[in-house]
Amino acid sequence: MIDPAMAEDLTISQSHSTWQLDATLLVFEPFRTMVSHHLQQRLRKLQGRYQRNLIKLGRLPRVQLPLQLQAVTELIHSLNSLWQDIQLVSHWVKNDSANEWLAAFLGKDTTEAAHQLAQKELQPLLSILLHHATIRTMEKTAVVVRQSEHAGNAYLLLAGQACALQVKEKALFRQRPEQHPWYQRLKQNLLPSQWVERRDTRRYDAAQQVTVAQGRDSYLRIPDLTEAHQPGTPEPKLLETGELFGAVAALQHSPHYRTIVVTSEQAILLEIRWQGVRQLARFDRGFRQFLDEQYRRHRLPALLQQQPILLGLNKSQLEHLATVAELDSYGAMDWKSVSDQNSDQRKSRIEQSEPLIIKEGDYANAVIFIRAGYARKSKAYGHSERALDYLRQGDSYGFQEVLGGIQLRSQQVSELSEAHLPRYSCTIRAVGYTDIIRIPARELEKVLAANKASTPPEAPQPAALPPSQQHELLVHEASDLLEFFIDQRFIYGTQTMLINLDRCTGCDDCVRACASVHDQNPRFIRHGHQHGGFMVANACMQCSDPLCLDGCPTGAIYMNNAGTVVINDDICVGCSTCADNCPFDNIQMVKIVDEHGKPVHANDHQGKLVPQLKATKCDMCTGQLNRPACELACPHDALRRVDIHQVEKIRDWLA
Amino acid sequence: MNSYVVRRRLVYLLVLGLLLASTLILLSLSNLSMPSEVYCTGWGLLAVMGLLVSYHWRKKLLFLNFGGVRYWLRLHILFGLYGVALFFIHIDFSWPKGLFNQLIATVFLLEVGSGMVGLYLSRTMPPRMTWLGERLLYEKMPEYYQQLRQQAEDLALQAAAEHHTDTLVKFYNRNLQSFLLGAANFWPHVFNSGQVRSRWALKFEGLQRYLVEDELPVVTELRILVFRKIELDKQYAIQGLLRRWLFLHIPLAYALFIFVLAHVMVIHSFSGV
């Protein structure tokens, strides 16, 4: 919470100055704690080195470093700019007159050195905030985050008030796309409009009442919260200044539980992108622990409950597993696909770009679950590794191996040699970024032993391979396909458009069909990455973890209940955030025309009239009676929307 | 060919055989006189033709929940083959008399022929294109031709400026300019002839003796451009053919349908059946 005295002095400039931004941040938890923790860690290290040096010199340290920051309240008084922060930290160090160790260690002017030290230590935080955070001002009734929207950002309420509640879907403009009557669809098919991207602009009138269009700073409003509140859901919860929300969801890219609406006349928020949240968690262990704790408490038991291998465990057992589970992160947030297939280079590339989570042949001491991101499952093959499968959110690995070990011990084999130890049969590597949950085998064993009712699956028989390995053998032939999909990151897709080039005659019936149901403008390009006899066309793949949803200011792009990412044209402000975020360039910004074919214009930031843009993408023909028109229209069965996870089906279809 | 495709084709043959057998059995059991039999097969043929034409409309009316177009194409082929058999039963396996009837029969056979050719092309040409490299968009090909031409022209002019000889420019003007202007050698590429490539290889070999050694790298680059142009021509020819056969098949289908309607009216008016 902010100090009331400080709040009066605190002026948040709209100039978005990084220095001022950081000065503001330090007033709030958890950033203040973060800086404090980080400095303490650094100082502990310095002290350790100093003590070792003194011991080497045959002397004992005379002064113990104060490990708790005592000057946080003093800190707050002088926080109006970053320089003041740094000065304050240096002031704290300087005022510690008994700080001989620092003087001895630095061997020069303490103030200057401390100043540099503080600056250096704050630099990573500054850098993260500079790249991933921004201050946003929102008026009363503005929607900050929307329920069941994939979290892309976390928010820190710097000033003002907000409330968290569940609202009706209608209030968020998430009406199910209306089904046109049959005669309108007939007309659409037989007498297509002569205008491309024609819109009924009257539809926008209602949306304009509740949309504040300011480019990427746009937002949606809910004018009447009482009416919008979903009956039968918990009462709205008030959020005060200094509250951080959405961080756990952003870290995991999982949906928000509730909608958060500004209730004060104005609210100032610090918006931190999910990449920033991840980096902050890496920067500060305390922050990481805070987020992990939240995750363990609110989300992990539910995730474990969904695991088929843990079915039958009671609530307390699941909570116990959640407590002992280790949470880890691997990989980089920003990925870049590399298409080099040369085996030697490929090996080094995989080793460099895909951090190792589990190594084939290592002692199987834990079961892992993927909580966010993707992982490659592979086996050693020649001088490299050959992909057998990939894991995505909710998938697990290592259970068979761990179970084998448990059963081996239960059989009380007289002499357990090295060869009897259960070992992982595959290598698991992070693809892009991967967050995992690791449950130690011994804890799992305890829980399974205590819970006789939930008998674990049958042990692998010596004669028959466990199902996972049978699956591995089946997909072995499809490995080349998998390698391609993983390397190019097509594994993100759940409805990837594949074109079998051995069947495609290029008749363009798919393109025409798409255009006929989408304002005479097809939502895909029949062109894309080609691999052997098939092509992955430039069409939205309906990613399971869609990046395009991040940062949409009005929530116009969202994932519906069927897992399809759709754009609500009415509240799309044309900021192109989604198009910029899509790593596959599958979202196009288009200029629209009104009913008479006249271009529609809107005012930009400077009040100039500019063509109104709208984001368009494949929506799997949501609102149409049939399956995607493209797939339906293909006469040669050359085009299919596929889930890459079903690689065997794809292989059979391509054969 | 995988086992699924083989099984599917066997099922089609079986269904076709059953259809034909049941038609023949029905006709023999009904013990109709010759004119009545022709009358029945004629109406049957018209119904089949209606079904065949409906495939085209199915493609247009996609919003109707009548199954994927791929199933309709299979039905289209199946009933097309059945229609051919029915047609020969209808004309009693003899060439019809009368100019109008002969016209209908000719158009019908042309329609069947174009359909067969189309089926053959749509099954054989796509795999050929797959191995030509990246599948290019037909509509964008003029753009690629333009780029190739520009590159070749720049190379020739650059060589002339650097080496103060006009041999390459002359070669470009005489041989390459018209070749690079647009698509060429449509039929040789359709029939997968290697002649074009060999001919150009010979031309380049012949050219080399008139050049200084410094110009040879330019010739190599020009040769690469020409071979890329040949690959492009192949794609253009195949994709063009896959589109053009429909310009014969669909108008013939509608013409045939109109002729058949006229034929039905004439029969009903004058045959006395």
From TrEMBL, chain A:
Chain ranges of the Cyclic nucleotide-binding domain: 309-421
Residue ranges occupied by any 4Fe-4S ferredoxin-type domain in the UniProt entry: 495-523, 532-562, 563-592
SUPFAM superfamilies from the UniProt entry: 4Fe-4S ferredoxins, cAMP-binding domain-like
Keywords assigned: 4Fe-4S, Iron, Iron-sulfur, Metal-binding, Repeat
Entry-linked Gene3D superfamilies: 3.30.70.20, Jelly Rolls
Pfam families, alphabetized: Fer4_7 (PF12838)
Transmembrane segments: none
UniProt cross-references to CDD domains, sorted A to Z: CAP_ED (cd00038), DMSOR_beta_like (cd16367)
InterPro entries: 4Fe4S_Fe-S-bd (IPR017896), 4Fe4S_Fe_S_CS (IPR017900), cNMP-bd_dom (IPR000595), cNMP-bd_dom_sf (IPR018490), RmlC-like_jellyroll (IPR014710), RnfB_subfamily (IPR050294)
Top-level taxon of origin: Bacteria
Protein name, as recorded: 4Fe-4S binding protein
Automatic annotation (TrEMBL), chain B:
Top-rank taxon: Bacteria
Species in which this protein is naturally found: Spartinivicinus poritis
Keywords (A to Z) from UniProt: Membrane, Transmembrane, Transmembrane helix
Name listed for the protein in its UniProt record: Uncharacterized protein
Residues spanning the membrane: 12-30, 36-57, 69-91, 103-121, 245-270
